[in-house]
Design brief:
Elements (H helix, E strand, L loop, with lengths): L5 H28 L5 E2 L10 E3 L4 E6 L17 H24 L3 E6 H6 L1 H18 L1 H4 L5 H7 L1
Bound molecules: zinc ion.
């Protein structure tokens, strides 16, 4: 039996979604400040990445602890438990397919957990920055033109 009214449930869902989008906005702003330019939520790309850095062949997904079944924080609602379990299972399966897809076409994919961003968004941005930097250092010809200025001046 479902003990939450549809109205109440949609309230809960919109709270979760709004929380997600605030976290995303903070992340995107920090990322922009670092000099990265990107497209957000582009439908043109498989799995609709949160950020696409086309010239760097990089996509970033921000995974909410709830929708993507984070082992530490995902609390499955007690009402209609099977429904939620099935939903999470599908999401996790889809995440794997998307990750594989980008790896196969030679793109870099970052998956960032919501809880990492809540804890320390700057640190997360810094980690991604460092990874892209190290790729750039080993393949300067390929992607130096697409790097943020502060990185390309270091390399060229
Ligand atoms: Zn989490």
């Amino acid at each position: 039996m479902d003990t939450i009214s549809p109205k109440k449930r949609s309230e809960i869902m919109s709270l979760i979604k709004n929380k997600d989008s605030n976290i995303e906005t903070t992340f995107r702003k920090l990322f922009w400040k670092k000099g990265f330019r990107y497209r957000k939520n582009s439908n043109k790309y498989f799995g609709k990445p949160d950020l696409v850095l086309k010239r760097l062949k990089t996509v970033i997904f921000i995974d909410s602890c709830f929708w993507h079944g984070c082992k530490k924080h995902c609390r499955i609602p007690t009402s209609r438990k099977n429904y939620w379990i099935e939903k999470m299972r599908k999401n996790i399966k889809r995440d794997k397919i998307v990750t594989k897809y980008y790896r196969n076409i030679g793109w870099k994919i970052f998956r960032v957990w919501e809880h990492e961003l809540v804890k320390n968004p700057k640190n997360t941005v810094q980690k991604i920055y460092k990874t892209i930097e190290s790729i750039a250092l080993t393949h300067p010809k390929i992607i130096s033109h697409a790097l943020p200025e502060q990185l390309s001046s270091k390399i060229l």
